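Researcher: Please predict.
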Amino acid sequence: CQVIVHDVNELTEKLFPIVEAMQKHFSAGSGTYYSDSIFFLSVAMHRIMPKEITRIIQVDLDLKYKTNIQDLFDEFDNFPEGAVIGIAREMQPVYRHTFWQYRRENPQTRVGEPPPDGLPGFNSGVLLLNLEAMRQSKLYNQLLEPTVVQKLTEKYHFKGHLGDQDFFTMVGMEHPELFHVLDCTWNRQLCTWWRDHGYSDVFDQYFQCEGEVKIYHGNCNTPIPED
């Protein structure tokens, strides 16, 4: 087993010029903070990792595994043609909220609607990054260009604060074919913040998850069930 440790400052130095332009759209607070770049690591991982690294699983720390992570790695084999990233849906109506203006202007839209037919956005707690596919995808790399990001944020009236998750969500509204959607059991989010903040009537449509949980995600400091 080989372990390679990466220096955060070095990574940030490489990341900053690539993601600087998108930070103002998807970071908390105003302006572009150099240190915030690390929250966009997954977005440009294919540009800063050595070429011989072709696939990476990136996960949050607030997770509890109920299965062998090799089974998650096997999900790479299920990527459809053209997909570059594996990611689960967001399980709260956070993007129903974020896209409120776009939804008001487009009452028939699937944007922000709950599954199975809607586009609730993504949660970046568990990410499968096919670095090789990301490097080769002309479409994905075009979407990193500042002018393209700007255009999409204007189209969707988008202002977020969740870093890479916001970027993937917005891109997924426009180009869902870039993503392999992981089953909710691979990222069973437990946070219920939005149930108590104006969305109790629709909350359960986003929050439900059938099947045996493989990974629990205790987001927003939610306790994870004991075995």
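Model: Strands lie at 55-59, 63-65, 85-89, 122-130, 179-182, 188-189, 215-217.
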